[in-house]
């Protein structure tokens, strides 16, 4: 004989919730952990100079670089920020420098240690970062201003520029 569906249907939202929680635990991810650049609502603009900040060289193509990349910010605390705070961070000119397009592409979302390594790793684009310690100091100031973590940063890289993150 068939059982009435009433009690089974009432438990369905609970079963779905438990399934979703188990799925999130099994995959090790949550909506908050996934980085999406568009969440930051960055409004690009053209620099009014033709000299790249990192290399102090004239550039064929120049754009704005985030000292602390949006991905770095996301991974060091911004994932939990409100949309307004993410937009404020992304458009804060204290976190912007003009950069030669190829240097900016090479830097990507790297922090100071990896950016320095990429500048002379022998894997293609080679350039000399002539304002490395100034970059590190500005990077530090932005992270402090927004309360971002230094957990994934290398303290020795900062110390060589007179900055302590320990």
Summarize the structure.
With 166 residues, the chain is mainly alpha-helical. The protein has seven helices and two strands. The protein has one domain (35-159).
Q: How are the SSEs placed, and which strands pair?
A:
Blueprint: H1 6-27, E1 62-66, H2 70-75, H3 83-90, E2 96-100, H4 101-107, H5 112-119, H6 132-145, H7 155-159
Antiparallel strand pairs: 1-2
Q: How would you characterize this protein structure?
A:
It is a single chain. The chain has helices at 6-27, 70-75, 83-90, 101-107, 112-119, 132-145, 155-159; strands spanning 62-66, 96-100. With 166 residues, the chain is mainly α. The chain has one domain (35-159). A two-stranded antiparallel sheet has the order 1-2. The protein is globular. The model is unreliable at 20-31 (pLDDT under 50).
Q: What do the pLDDT scores average to?
A: 84
- Portion of residues in helices? 40-55%
Shape: globular
Helix-strand string = HEHHEHHHH
Features:
166 residues; mainly alpha; 7 helices
């Amino acid at each position: 004989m068939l059982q009435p569906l009433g009690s089974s249907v009432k438990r369905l939202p609970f079963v779905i919730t438990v399934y979703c929680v188990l799925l999130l635990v099994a995959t090790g991810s949550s909506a908050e952990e996934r980085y999406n650049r568009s969440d930051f609502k960055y409004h690009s603009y053209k620099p009014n100079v033709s000299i790249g900040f990192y290399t102090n060289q004239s550039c064929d193509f120049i754009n704005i670089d985030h000292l602390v990349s949006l991905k770095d910010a996301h991974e060091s605390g911004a994932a939990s920020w409100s949309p307004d705070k993410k937009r404020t961070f992304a458009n804060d000119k204290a976190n912007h420098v003009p950069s030669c397009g190829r240097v900016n592409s090479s830097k990507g979302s790297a922090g100071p240690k990896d950016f320095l390594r990429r500048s002379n790793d022998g894997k293609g684009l080679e350039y000399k970062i002539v304002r490395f310690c100034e970059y590190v100091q500005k990077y530090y100031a932005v992270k402090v201003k927004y309360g971002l973590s230094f957990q994934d940063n290398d303290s020795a890289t900062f110390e060589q520029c007179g900055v302590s993150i320990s």
